[in-house]
Amino acid sequence: MINDQETPTLLLPVLKLTKQRLGRQNLVLTICLLVITSLILFLLAAAWQAWRTPPAARQAHHSTLATAGDTHKYQPKPTRQATPTAQTALIAPQVDSLLANMSAHQQFSGSVLIAQHGQVLLSKGYSMADWDHGVPNTPHTRFYLGSTTKQFTAMAILILQQQGKLHVHDRLCSYLENCPAAWQPLTIHNLLTHTSGIPQLDDSQLSGASPEAWIASYDGVSLAFTPGSQFDYCSVCYQILGYVVERASGEPYSEFLQQSIFDPLQMKDTGFDQNYLSLPDHAVGYADWRVNAVTLGWPITPQWTFLFGSGLLQTTLEDMYRWDQALYTNTLVSQQTLDEAFTPYAPASQYVGSGYGYGWFITNSPVPGRRLIWHDGRIDGFRTYIGRFIDDRVAIIFLSNLATLDELSLANTLEHIVFSHITR
Known about the structure:
The chain is α+β, with helices and mostly antiparallel strands and about 425 residues long. It has 2 domains: about 1-50, no CATH class; about 90-420, Beta-lactamase. About 35% of the residues lie in helices and about 15% in strands.
């Protein structure tokens, strides 16, 4: 065996033999030979030592060298990554085949992402974002979210709570001037969980009026039920929550979300742009296959952007995945606050088996004892869905510009495909 401790011993006989045969006249040549021999033996010894060193130790050594002198640079924490298996490798082609077939039969148009443990298994667009201009759907195509927007409004409330500017159990009227008498017992929590009893009114006649006049239009209108006694899905409640965001933050609703959520998460293609149809990579909404839906967009002043809080956010598949991944961290709020958002305060909703937290439906995952946190969205020409299997770290997200799509049926089908290939 050759190692670095044995190298000097091997050099002695070589030196003695060289002096006897060559004499003094060849001493210079001898020295050269010795240098070369020493170098060869040193390299052989180094190679032998490297071969004997375990791979893990070599990796640790290289890591130490790479980070030496870099202690002030951000070092990302190790994250658990999914190891591709023969089973999970089947998910993408099976889902792709399903959606391509649906698209060919005029049943699906949009973009879909499926991920597990931070590894994207599929991210792809299907059919056309704009038939008139021949623009296909891609993972960076913009869509209206519909009611999937509500989770962002709820997060804005929770951020303000963490900042100490409000609390979810505060009285709603603490943030409203001339608060309707029937709203006096309501808390912010009641509106977040759709348990307030506030009815939807026809506010079409309030165009040009002030937000205060809009709130005042509810004066004299009774609640539909005793607050907290039942669940009744309430889009206007999330518009009111958008107004609370403005009152508590001192900023227009859209600006607060931009600064507090979208910018920190680098959701660069997400916002409430009223010029949606002039944005690059936007999807046109279709009421039926190649039949344009009603054009969305309202030219209103910033003081009215809180009305967007129930369903007018625009975003992309890629940005929604950034949002999904951020909700596994404390980037926006603490883990305790996230746990509050994902608690089913209303144990029953309009969907059998699903309760409701703060902007999210909560139900059981296909894996016993685990949870699915989800929400869908419906608005003229668009259908959207995000399903977060938070205990399995699985995400199923799709954004569609075809109103005939049954988004919950598709979500259920994708769920079955994914979990048929994931070890439980």
